[in-house]
Amino acid sequence: MKNISKVLLAVLAIGSVVSCKDYLGKDSISTVDNKFVFNSYETAKTVIYGAINSIKDSYNGGAPTNFDNIGSDIERCSVGLIADLVGAAQLYGGNASYTIEQFNINGSLKGYWDTWYSAISKCNQVISNIKAMSNFEDITTKDVPNDWSDLLGQAYALRATMYRELTWHYGDCIYYTENEIGKDIKTLTNRDQILDREIQALIEIEKLMYKVGENNHMPDQLTRNYVDGLIGRLCFQEAGYQTRRTDLGDDFYVKEDGSKYSFEVWGTDADRNAAYGRRTDWEALYKKALPWLEKGINQPGEVALTTVDPRNDGKRTFGNPFQYYFEQVTQKIMPYESVFEIAIKEDSGGSRIAYNFGRGSNGGSPAYPPKANAQTCSYPTIFYGMYDPQDMRRDASLGVTGSTGNGQEAIYTYGLSNKNTIGMGCNKYDLNRQTNPDARQLYSGINYIMMRQAEIILMYAEALAQTNDKDKAATYLKQIHNRAFPDAVEDAKYSELLAANGNDIYKAIIAERALEFLDEDLRRWDLIRTGTLPDVAVNFRKQLVDEVTEMKAKGYVTYANGNEYPAYIWTKTMDAKSLLGFRLTAQTPAGLDPMSDEYALQFPGYRGQHDDWLAVATEDNAASKIKFGTGTDDNTNLAILGLTKHLTDAEIAAAEARGYKKTAWGVLTYSLEATPGTESAAREALWSTDFMCGYSDADYTAKKAPIYLIPMNETVCSTTGLKNGYGFKSSTK
């Protein structure tokens, strides 16, 4: 026990390894502790475990994750989120207190600078100590991995991940490596030099790391697979559009050798000293990414795209490999498609993946299912218009119902607050789908997906398209696209995807990424780096306004794919167990009459309720919290008619004769729930004009650089002497 304590104390001390304490607020460790920890591989690797644990909350529902996940045209935030995150998602507009000039630099985004630099400190210490070993050359010169070389690679990989977060969210930042340990650095280094150097470090160490499946390495560890994908991400970031500062001098954006970076500038903001553009060597960066993304696909170890759905319980319809992947993640299984996951403990009461990003539930704690706040949600136009009706990702990614918390299903409303008031919810994580769910909120134990193989494949396709190998790019795009469609229609639907994007393979790949990665923190990044953020901010807002106008005029919105988004739907609660044999639904069976109860209970797919919340509650001695199972109310599921086709008068009369009730749906985009039909300018603004309202039509016409970055907090500014750019204040005084 004493030795374990000594290890833990030493590892805790190692968390503060540099004397850049003015901006990290840390002290450095003693040489004795340092030597002790790195005396063996078993103790040394705990430093990396500690570093990953220290950043866990950044991904497990932390502010940056929300920030990335809510500011796009396919994901939005509920107003229950912290106010400054709402402002950030709107590109710092709307409410006066959200604007860039008034933004609270000490608010909910405050701590992530320190968190990420603390992890970098641990990584630098690992790198420095391994490099100092007497047998370092033997460790790193054999072109095959060993424990120490792999640990070295993990440190480089995590450090590069942290610099990606810092440069992506803050822009230019302080850069220090293992060579700067002990130095008190208070100057900014440009992001381009930082990431170029990190990319090169990853390239040099990649071959000396284990793949997933080698040496007991699973996707919850940093592996060669992740490094291959990370090289791609960093190259894409550097090849893409970014907003950079123009107030740091003409010689700030220079390479390590002192030569200048050059940029293609789309637009500027003279008042905020900013320019939005991309590096002129962007194509070379795509070329640099190609061999590593190719290795991630052709030499994947045990990582593989999920292409088969083996489920068959004799009752439900399955056959959806995409949803099967997320079902495994929800069930706390690490699927072969996962490249890297951040492990989240189920017994800590801090598991926020299902709570923040999953299917909503009004339940408290304990409840069945417990509360899920559903702080990220989407737009009806994404469910109805963006996804093809035969795309099996739609129902697995988006949903129209949540849970009451007593084992029953409920339609979402449009209050844009949280839980069941989100309008159109995300559906990749659902507590109903856990075999043995915990009735306490924040105990789901679902891991955060940092990267999956589908992204590596689509990055490879994009790099091929951007380097003019379009036929090969199409081959890899089809791998992702085709698994989302039934075999009989996949080729036709692929042709439709191309046609919808002007037969431009690159644009088709970016569109496919939106369909594939909804609610996975990638779309906002794609909009920014592809240079489309300004256009989307203005034109998607116009689309939303037009759809509300159309809804008011004719009672539904019509989309090119044949879907109709109606003002009203007809619903009825039913005993799905007696009719179907189950409560938790899967893929909607083919061939059902769209006016039948069987169809109404199973369309859209992947909803319903856990098959036996009563048994879970009985184990908790809380059966009274369940409304069914005692014969009093077994109507656990919600049957819905007319969700994607507005009903005729005859169909409405027939539905009402069977007990279906008229239920407000699309009308709630401009009406209040309490009095449907009563127009509300505030409600309409929430669903249309408030989208990215900080970037105006006038900004777009003037080609103003969008400000999407976050500011350093006041303590960082005061202790380093650094000043925020982009119009943010640096002090509250």
The share of residues in helices is: 40-55%
Structural class: mainly alpha
Uncertain stretches: 1-20, 24-32
Radius of gyration: 26 Å
The portion of residues forming beta strands comes to: 5-15%
Termini Cα gap = 50 Å
Q: What's the pLDDT, averaged over the residues?
A: 92
- Determine the number of helices (DSSP H or I, runs of at least 4 residues): 29
SS elements, strand count: 16
Describe this structure in words.
By secondary structure, this protein is mainly alpha-helical. Residues 1-20 and 24-32 have low confidence and may be disordered.
Short description:
By secondary structure, this protein is mostly helical. It has 29 helices and 16 strands.
